[in-house]
Amino acid sequence: MTQHVRTSYRKHRRATWGLAIALVLAVAAVVIPIASGAPEKTYTMLFPQSGAVSNPSAPVAGTAGAQTLCTNTSYGSVKLVISNTAKTASLGSADVTFPSSVVSSLGPPAFSGSVASGATVTRSGLVVSARGLSLPSKTGSVTIQVPVTTKSVAAGPANITALVKQSNDFSDAGTNPDANTFAQPGSFPSLTTQNCDQKITGRVYHDRDQSGAFETAPILVPTPVVTTTVPPPVPAITRTAIASTRPTN
Fold it and tell me: Is the pTM of this model over 0.85?
């Protein structure tokens, strides 16, 4: 093999390996994001800043990430906001699951505010299913309100979780079950329940003089003073007076 042939062979081999490596990297750049869904498809699910719990209102002020409810209480509405933070992908559907340790049942859910034409929201047990959302990337959001009845025993915090997909009908694409799935957010909103109807038992004392003093001694009732009227004394009858009254002969 001449020097010219050897040099040409080496150049050809380097070019072939370079092309193969470039192809592998290109395929990986396309396949890996599609397979994981994490780098591209992201979302958040939080409570709204105001009006998260109503009819009745929450016993204490909550946050976008946590709310406290009373035990054994039916709330007319608990609201959640799902926002599409993906770079380019639209958000089409979601299954939201309420924690069974805190919630005993859900009422019929509904959208709060405007939604895409044909969007639906239903429930089955403790799962709320939203379909046909068509939320655009970066700016799209939807608010779902759900009647919630809490259990009788205090519990929590427990997360409200979700599974979100790009497809409007919650289906998967091709043979990859995660192709349409959005990456889970860093944290989910949580619910906690507390006893709100405490009963006072035992003796109740009234602070009559507003002194703040607590006394258990019996109250002394003064004995009423009884006054009597004594009749005046009858005058004594003397012998002289009796003699003066006898008749003379």
Answer: no
